[in-house]
Amino acid sequence: KELTSVRLLNSLQYPDGPCDIALVKIPKHLSLLEDQLYRMRRSLHPDTHIIGAGMARHIHTSTLDLFERIVGPTRTSLARKKARLIFCQPNPAIDPGDSPYPTYYTFENTAYRLANQAGLFSREKLDNGTRLLLEHIPRSDRKQTIIDLGCGNGVIGMVATERNPAAAVTFVDESFLAVASAEENFRAVFSDGRWAAFRTIDCLNGIPSGSADLILTNPPFHRDRAVGDAVAWQMFSEAGSVLKPGGTLMVVGNRHLGYHAKLKRLFGNCRTMSTDTKFVVLESVR
Ligand SMILES: C[S@@+](CC[C@H](N)C(=O)[O-])C[C@H]1O[C@@H](n2cnc3c(N)ncnc32)[C@H](O)[C@@H]1O
């Protein structure tokens, strides 16, 4: 068959079925794969060929078990150049039940019940770094613009919304699943007309310069397996132009990541707000 068109779907959309060949790039997080297999199931028929591809180090017995449990009989190829293929044939008799996603946890000492789509950062409980940052989110009655950068399930932006009744908060993340979770969580708590924006973008791409009073972030500290700070660096430097003069960037991170030096270099100032054995909360003013 000739391929006549390609339609791109984001991770929240279901492909229209039925499909004859399904190609899956095996994600690093098992929960993401589980979510994708549940979504994909709807468009499979008994003769669909499913071919997964991934780095051998991301393919474990648990990966194959997921295919077997949700879709059907599964086998793998030998590894070639550190990569492997997975072949799976749907078995219509399998009933894996409903997808477990999103999962929920109750945010300590509040009535917030936080939804977390598959693959989200710290989706079973509040991250300790995030908790430390929450202690320092300022309170104010003035009209202002706040950004939760790399919002995940949106807990930082929600606390900022609560403490700043006149603020407009924008939630941004590169992950559609994260932004969907943040929006669901915000709407469940602030159903009474509080305004917020939800953007799936890379860092602060497209947010006007000089538009924000406060940017709050717990930046991603690794991508894939290589521990790197390129995204954090990009977030900090873009925050430098998106903030209004006098606006504040507040960051939490592992102490060993050395964000202090980076922020000092970019902003010319960096104040330590709080520190514990593992994390540090820093503030730079544009
Ligand atoms: C350490 S998590 C923090 C999540 C949430 N704010 C919290 O504290 O629980 C970092 C977040 O940054 C997001 N992220 C990673 N790379 C990004 C990028 N290039 N642009 C925007 N967000 C990104 C991730 O999807 C993740 O949700």
Automatic annotation (TrEMBL):
Keyword terms: Cytoplasm, Methyltransferase, rRNA processing, Transferase
InterPro entries assigned: DNA_methylase_N6_adenine_CS, RlmG_N, RsmC/RlmG, SAM-dependent_MTases_sf, Small_mtfrase_dom
Residue span(s) of domain RlmG N-terminal: 4-91
GO molecular function, one term: S-adenosylmethionine-dependent methyltransferase activity
Domain Methyltransferase small positions: 112-282
Transferase as UniProt keyword: yes
Statement: the UniProt record of this protein carries the keyword Heme: no
A GO BP entry: methylation
Transmembrane spans: none
Protein's name in the database: Uncharacterized protein
Provenance organism: marine metagenome
